[in-house]
Design goal:
Length: about 325
């Protein structure tokens, strides 16, 4: 029986998780919060047929391409096992991607571009590849050295991080609000357009800062073009800025906001911690670690590690 070739997305450019696929030897799909796929469950519970196809139609040793755009790929892989439901991937840049299969990936250093939208103008998140030139490329790639990666041990999976057992009292009300409103935001017909960045700042960011001990006069909105600036002392000057917050629209991808926020710091002539947020998710980049991400919290999916973010953002 010939090997089937599949393609899967590594997420949109502003919220890519392709590196996680390669690092942990997985292919992931969502939505996963509905629980594990089983044949007796309805496709509607999983947003359509995609999860059924991923769970039931793939054979171990089928090939898979990690798609980076409608014309390009970043890795070639071989499926290495059956469908699994992995709770540790319940929050991947805000996505619930618990539907999983193990994959041996071979990343292509500079990617490969077919030069034409071989996956379609609006490619599915996961689908069988039918274009002959793509199938032939995959077959040639798998037959060419090096081939040791095709039988190499799979990388270790990350441990599942437990939920936060005790939510700090100061943020309990905000967390409840976020959980209630997040469900409403997803009901487009019932809610309407998603909230703007300014609305998210008003409903979530400022209340979170106040809950963490910052007084109103030390929180500036749109100061020197920065969405939110937090000051350790008055007067509100660049040198007294404690950290800044860059806000993005809900679902817009907070990870892509770091460079913009760094530009604001450069204009101010200072170097400070940066928090990027969509109101619900918060990621802190530490200036003393070269702006590495060091803390994260998702208000509707709080894990134990969220305490580190609250502590970093708390007023000294």
């Amino acid at each position: 029986m010939s090997r089937t070739v599949w393609q899967i997305t590594g997420g949109p450019p502003n919220r890519s998780y392709a590196d996680l696929f390669v690092r942990h030897g997985v292919a992931l799909l969502g939505p996963g919060d509905a629980g594990a796929w089983r044949s007796e469950r309805r496709d509607e519970e999983f947003g359509g047929h995609t999860i059924q196809r991923f769970a039931a139609d793939v054979r171990p040793d089928d090939a898979v391409l990690l798609r980076s755009g409608p014309t390009s790929i970043s890795a070639v892989g071989l499926f290495a096992g059956d469908y699994q439901y992995l709770p540790q991937f319940d929050d991947v840049n805000g996505w619930d991607l618990q539907h999983a299969r193990r994959v041996r990936w071979y990343p292509i250093p500079d990617g490969y571009d077919f030069g034409t939208p071989v996956f379609g103008a609006s490619p599915a998140r996961f689908a069988k590849v039918r274009r002959g030139e793509v199938v032939h490329y995959t077959e040639r790639f798998l037959a060419s050295p090096p081939v040791q990666w095709q039988v190499a041990p799979l990388p270790a999976l990350p441990a599942e991080e437990p939920g936060l057992a005790q939510i700090p009292d100061c943020v309990t009300g905000l967390v409840s609000q976020a959980q209630d409103l997040a469900r409403l935001y997803n009901e487009g017909e019932a809610f309407g357009d998603l909230p703007t960045e300014d609305e998210l700042v008003a409903h979530y960011v400022i209340p979170l800062l106040r809950a963490l001990g910052w007084s109103a006069e030390r929180i500036a909105v749109k100061w020197r073009d920065v969405d939110v600036s937090v000051f350790r002392a008055l007067p509100r000057r660049a040198e007294s800025c404690h950290f800044i917050i860059e806000a993005k629209r809900l679902g817009g991808g907070v990870e892509g906001a770091l460079r913009q926020a760094q530009g604001y710091l450069t204009e101010l002539g200072i170097q400070r911690d940066i928090v990027v947020t969509d109101g619900i998710r918060y990621r802190l980049y530490a200036v003393d670690r070269g702006f590495e991400p060091v803390a994260y919290a998702n208000l509707i999916r709080l894990k134990g590690s969220a305490l580190a973010l609250f502590e970093r953002m708390r007023r000294p």
